[in-house]
Amino acid sequence: MNARTKMILGRMAQAIPVVMGVVVISFLLTRALPGDPAAYFAGPAADEASIAEIREALGLDKPLFQQFFLYVGDLARGDLGTSLTTGQTVMSDLAARLPASLELTLVALLLSCAIAIPLGVLAATRPGTWVDHLCRVLVTAGVSMPTFFTGIVLIYVFYYLAGLAPSPLGRLDFIYLSPPHVTGFYLIDAALAGDWETWFGALKQLILPATTLALFTLAPIARMTRAAMLSALSSDFIRTARAAGLGSRKVLYGYAFRNALLPVVTTLGMVFSFTLGANVLVEKVFAWPGIGSYAVEALVVSDYAAVQGFVLAMALLFVALNLVIDIAYALIDPRIGLN
Amino acid sequence: MTDTSRRTFLKLTGGTVGAAMLPFLKTMPAQAQSGGRIVVVSGQTINSLDLHRTGTNRASYQVAVNCYDRLVSFGTKDAPGGGLSYDYDVIEPELAESWTISDDGLTMTFKIKPDATFWDGRKVTAADVKWSFDRAVSAGGFPTVQMKAGGLVRPDQFEAVDDETFVITLDKPSKLTLPDLAVPVPFIINSEEAKANATEDDPWAMEYLHTTPAGSGAFKVVRWDQGQQPVYERNDTWVGGPLPSFEQVIVREVPSPATRRALVERGDVQMSFNIPNKDASELAEMDGVDVYSTPIENCIHCLCPNFNFEPFQDANVRKALAYAIPYEAIFQTAAYGRGAPMWGGEAEITDTAWPRKSPFMTDMTKAKEHMAASGFEVPLSISLGLADWMEPTALLMQEAFAEIGIKAEIEKIPGANWRSAALVEKRLPLHLENFGGWLNTPDYYFFWAYKHGHLFNSSNYLNEEIEQLVDSTLHIPMDDPAYAPNIKRMFEIAFEDLPRIPLWQPALNVAMNGASGYEFWFHRQLDVRPLTTATT
Amino acid sequence: MVDMTSSQPARKGDTTLGHIAYVLKDNPVTMLAFAMLAFFLGCAFFGPALVPYDPLATNAARALEAPSWDHWFGTDNLGRDVFSRVIVATRLDLTISVAAVALSFVVGSILGSIAGYWGGWLDAVLNRCLDTIMAFPLFVLAMGVVAALGNTVENIIYATAIINIPFYARLVRAEVNIRRNAGFAQAAKLAGNSDLRVLAVHIFPNALPPMMVQVSLNLGWAILNAAGLSFIGLGVRPPTPEWGIMVAEGANFIVSGEWWLAVFPGLWLMLAVFTFNLLGDGLRDIVDPRKRT
Lengths: 339, 536, 293
Fold this sequence. Notes:
Oligomer: heterotrimer
Strand content of chain B: 15-25%
Largest sheet of chain A: none
Distance between the termini of chain A: 14 Å
Distance between the termini of chain B: 25 Å
Number of domains of chain A: 2
Number of helices of chain A: 14
Helix content of chain A: over 70%
CATH superfamily of the largest domain in chain A: MetI-like
Number of strands of chain B: 22
Radius of gyration of chain A: 24 Å
Low-confidence stretches of chain B: 1-34
Radius of gyration of chain B: 24 Å
């Protein structure tokens, strides 16, 4: 137990330089962006003097080193600065937009798991057959499509041509009001408020973007499920179970699948953080007010504080997720982390 | 209650709308409209409710227009190309009931409407006007620059004589002062409410008004979902003009132009603001969708050769460019014929109309004659944010310029960098530019785009005669005997020196499906006040 | 590659070619992938010489024409032939992905080998650096790099390479780390070989098989990444034909009915990525049959 606690503490200590690295790199990256935010935000018809005024107000007239220390000082006080594009503090922007991205990503992953895991199991039970090949081709086709292209095609077919999907207007059609804010997840908030009409409204808006993302994430989950199932099925305890005459269903779901779950869950963690970063493009297509579209807008206009805040938030999420996975592993499997 | 009925109605049909119900769906918004709500989609959303704040984007000007009043406003006229337009030549009262200008043109006295009230019920007084004007000239940045254009620079120029009398004192008379009071910038704020929320660091209540408007305008902001939409609700006690027809207006941001088009085409929204030229030309052919393409006054899409780049110091090279441009192909491909051609005009200048056609046209023989010098390579820069028209234009130019030995490589520059590279540092050797002046006089355009060092003179053009002509013409009235000759001379020089090669006058396109009453404004933002339900 | 093929028969006791033939026969999908790869390579090498039209030549009179015998994939808004542009773009897209992956392969291998072989503080520092890159939202990092350096083909390659480096470095580090004290490495060292030589000639080749799989998967990913950058507006410069830009620009025409502008380049893009992904799986079967059991 002592060694394990030490390991967990050590693992947490390792995360500190990573976060510091992210702070430094994101600072340098934003400062390397071309253009002068002061000139951009001075607006039309601004002259030299007013641009200089704004540069001073933004603190951009100071040397780089001083800017960095000011930034770190603000960070230490929990102040991420103010976004020039939205005019809000970066903290409130992220708080408003992160739930939108998380909700989309989580629903997409749920959908993806619901399809990919059965596919993976199916492929693993019949390796080398046409079923296996078909599964592989299907999921690979999904990951081969650029998400923005899938999204646009889905909108065209299901909204424009068929009229089945609701208008791609972000999280809720304007006939609904957003549910009272509790978690920021509309599905949860609407359910808490007992407003099922809005709940269905939010769900309808989620279907197309979530499908787009799900198609993209089928492959890693299905592949990992297949591989983990294969190795579980070929292991000794399954042979023993089979030899003992247990039914094939029982062997498959009761033993093999349960053992294959751990690597699948780990993959899910990786896929989750990757998808959260990658749904930038999907958010743009579906007018989704998430952090991805926020980051793109901010980057294009050199909105330093917003880009830094976004990167930092994503990095912290990533680090925290990995920590949780590692610690969970260490707790479950005593062999890891002790050698 | 009407909202609820629309909602219930949609609940009954919305979930199960199939392809078979499509024709039915198209008629539905007209019925729903009786509730007095209009939904507008646009590519950009607001980032502040206060125009004076640093960093406020263009889209946010709509709040100043719809939620605040100015002393005066412009009249309305029929727009070329259908629909209505503001009328630069007619100044109408908004918050001011009447005004007088002294004979020397230096003192302007405004009488404020006695029944005008802010949303909180307090009477609008001259002190509020003074506070708001003081704020505009002191805030710095864009509002201050725009006020300066009308000769309004210092708080001591503004005086509240009594509750209903407001006086402006000018340093010199200018024809631009009165129109400058009708642009979105000098809007009138409830100064008591603002001062109650000001702090020592923030004497102008920038933080408060950024999220909480306090005005007397036709609409109040009842809800602002940041990054998505403002929701406006009508102020029934508005005295600035005729009461708007809609009770509620939603202006939703939809970044993808394809989605915006689908929404308005399907009738799911009643209006799509600022649509691409291609959509405008195609939607105009469709039943049920009305498209208004209004040429933007005092705005020209130009090709700018930079005088700091050595080959372009030769006037013949600039003329070679002007003769090589495939104007018609560009106008059809990039603008889909929307707007007005700016090439192939008369050589002789007989009037002061502006924008006007340049005397140049596509003529490869002449282009090659002027291009006696050997060829060269030059980057042709375009803005990423304006790629919609700039990219096809640049591609067609690139092909044509290659024929006269100018090898142009297209360079796309992102938003933040575009302003600083093109306008502030003025370092782009050859680029496209689209300045439009808010105040609709040619000398105002020349002031910004042809005077050396001024922001939109991205060609680094310097001509002593232009400098002197603009200075002596800018403030004199249009009926002054010196005005017309001066303006004509400016045109001659501009077409001889060609620091900006005019391409076409762009149009602002708006599509409506189930609403009407759209009026074009020079600020290119949506004035929701005159909109009404469609009369079918 | 030479090391890989020569080291395998010794380990597996089988001829490499025979093994490949066996796997291919066993797996029609992999065979398909190899055939498609050959097709794309053909397009990349001979495409520009074979296409019916100049991919850059505009023809305003024939803009936005639907697919026909004259223009198999239709024409775009400037009247350029979409088919010619799609085929010609193959070379650039493959170049971007191959160059980016090669760059990250080389840099990642060197960093990973050093960290894995010598270990210690070098390893620790390098690991933290890689963690830092991985902690970035990768697509946004690529966007930032291209925005900062300017949108040229080289910079798109650099950006794509940077976000891929950690994957290679980690892989190589792990492979090198478990073998640095293996018997064959010790023996080579005792025979008088320098550390560098042992690392490069004896240990590193063992990391190649799993890396080949990674390479092939990454090639597809690199194409998608470049396409995503184009969609944001940070892709290669016009008028150069590139699949991502063509899809991104064509996307705006879908709703107005000109579907061919986005669909054909999108299809080609998808097929190319699809080929590389299937190839990755196939290579995995070839280099490591145990994975398939």
